[in-house]
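Problem 12. The chain below contains 136 residues. Write out its predicted structure in token notation.
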Amino acid sequence: MLIPKKVKHRKWHKGRARVKREARGTELAFGSVGLMAVDECWVNARQIEAARRTLARATQRSGKVWVRIFPDRPVTRKGVEVPMGGGKGSVEFYVAAVRPGRILFEMDGVTMVAAREALRRAGHKLPLKTKIVARS
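Solution.
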């Protein structure tokens, strides 16, 4: 699973949801076809890995896959039935904060039909709506 090697601050504030379009990472940079986010959501490391495995299996490991998101944001949880107080909980997992328009995965080296089917299946593993985009 993907986790950062080192972080400046171990525990972060939650932040506020801002539904505005992503500024960076909205164009295909490496592959010829990609999966773009339509909603905004936190995508955790397990979901990214599940989608990546689906892409690898659907293409029989031919071609090349680029993962364009990385889970660098820590999410904390307190233990079950822990009373109020006692500070912030420990880090449970890491997420990537994804806004609309962000390219999540890119593929190249496979036929367009196979790439579209693989990306469609990978999109089902993610907790947000996605669409498939191709280089024009």
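Discussion. The chain has a mean pLDDT of 93. Students who got a different answer should revisit the alignment rule from Section 12.3.
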